[in-house]
Structure formats: structure tokens, C-alpha cells
Amino acid sequence: MKPRPSLSTFSMILGLWMVLGNCYFNPAVQLVVNPEITEETNPATLLGVASVLAAPKTVQITGQIVDANGVAAVDATLTIVSRTNQLEGLTNTMLLNEGGRFYLILSTGETTIRVDQSGSELFTFTISIPFPGSSMITNKSLSGPDVLNVEFYEKGITPAYLDLIYSTPYDKAILTNWPTLVIVTFSEDLENPSDMQIFLDSNVITNPPISFDGSFSSVSNNVLQIYNSSNFSIGTNTFTFGPGIKSVTGKSLSPKTITYICNFPCNGS
H helices within the chain, ranges in order? Predict the structure, then answer.
């Protein structure tokens, strides 16, 4: 005949089962026995992170405004027309400097800006900033004027630039005679190069290639005169000015490309 368990033994087994069962369903124990239940996989946590990333942020941004001829919009006024996110401390209006350059405090999202020059509207445009470090110019009211060299900069630091103000012939000029001389004016006096030929060959890139005459070319204050020793080509010709061009104060040029259209017969002038 098999012995029956005593009442005390049965009570001990029941109590042990209840303790172990309660521990297993305890959240603290679950973190040990089921490590896949973590804070990172909590939907509420993920939504909190997403909301922080999506929250509007303040950014500082700079760029240059030029008109349809590539001439810097010196002393033009920028006015904020609308913005998707209104934060404290944002720029509402500002005057462009001697290089047609702006320094704006904006928010992420979209900001629409009007440019007025000499009492008349030059154009409007929208800066779209999905997140700090990324921007796109959209919705320009006119195709000619433009926004160049847009960059972000750090809070508390206002970067200084050398800017190209205008050229003769103007940017996007349509010619039938290629110009022997191209004159370029900058926002500050230029550093005078020790070897003009090397300076031009290194810092002014043309497409199709055009040869320069360094012996006749010169720098005088903020003006660079470039004499061409070979012809333009029929069609589109570009001059790209690089950051190796510096001011006497050591500022590097914000890169700029000038385009000329030379139509037939495209003879020398």
C-alpha cells in the first residue's frame, strides 16, 4: 500500500508553486527570463524618439543672392513672407552685405522669402530645410535671379566670405564676338599673385578650354582683368572661379561659374 503525502508536505508544495508562479509573471523577473522585452522595443519609447527628431529646430544659414545677370544683389532687403515653424529668435528681415550675402536664423521646414532691391521686388523663393545640414531652394518666382553657395554655419560663429559681385560681360551674356578681355569685380581687394599666369591657370577653369595671357592680365584692388589668348567656342562657354582666389585679408572666394553663349560667327573682338 503506497503511503499518502501528509498535509504538511502538501501545504509546502502548494506554497512553493505559488511563489515560483508569481515570480515568473513578475515584470522584474520577466526582464531576466525574457530579455527580448526591452525599452527600445516599447512603442511609446519609439514614438517619443520620433517626436524629438521631428521637432522643429533652429538653424543658421548663409548664401548669396544674384540677379538675372549674375550681379550680386548688394544692399537688397530680404523679408520673411511665411514659415511653417515659428520659433523664438528667428530672422524676419535683413539687409544683404557688400557681396549680396545673407546670414539668416531660420527653422527647419519651409521658409518663403521676398527679395526687394531699389524699392522693387526682385523675386521670391522658398528655402526647404528638412533637417539641419540639408537645404533646397524651391518655388522661385522668376527663373533669372538665383541663390548661390548656400551653407549652414555654427551658432556663435559668423563666417566671412569673398564673393564675386559682377563680371563684364555679364553672366549668361549672349555674344556674337568673343571678348578679348573679361573683367571680374569682387567684394574685397584681392591678394596680388606673384605669377599671374600660374594664378589664372590654377584658379580660373574654362569649358571648353580657353588660354589666358598672364602677361597682360592683372589684379587692381578688387578687380581682376583676364585677357584671353584663344577664341571662345560656338555655343556655351563657362568660367569657373575657385577658392584659390583670396582677398588681402585671407578670405577664400565662394566658387562661382559665369556662362557665356557665343553665337555664330563667334569672332574675336
Answer: 7-24, 27-33, 43-54, 196-203
Between CA 167 and CA 258 the distance in angstroms is: 8
The pLDDT score that the predictor gives to residue 40 is 52
What pLDDT is recorded for position 43?
55
- Return the DSSP state at 10: H
One-character DSSP codes across 100-121? SEEEEEEESEEEEEEEEETTEE
Q: What is the dihedral of CA 227, 68, 162, 208, to 10 degrees?
A: -40
State pLDDT tens for residues 110-150. 999 999 999 999 999 999 999 999 999 999 999 999 999 99
**CA-CA-CA-CA dihedral for 203, 209, 214, 216, to nearest 10:** -120
Peptide bond into 145 cis (omega under 30): no
C-alpha cell recorded at residue 128: 526647404
- In 3D, which of 212, 260, 263, 221 has the Cα closest to residue 70? 260
Tell me, what amino acid is at 124?
A: T
How confident is residue 185, by pLDDT bands cut at 50, 70 and 90?
Answer: very high
**pTM > 0.90:** no
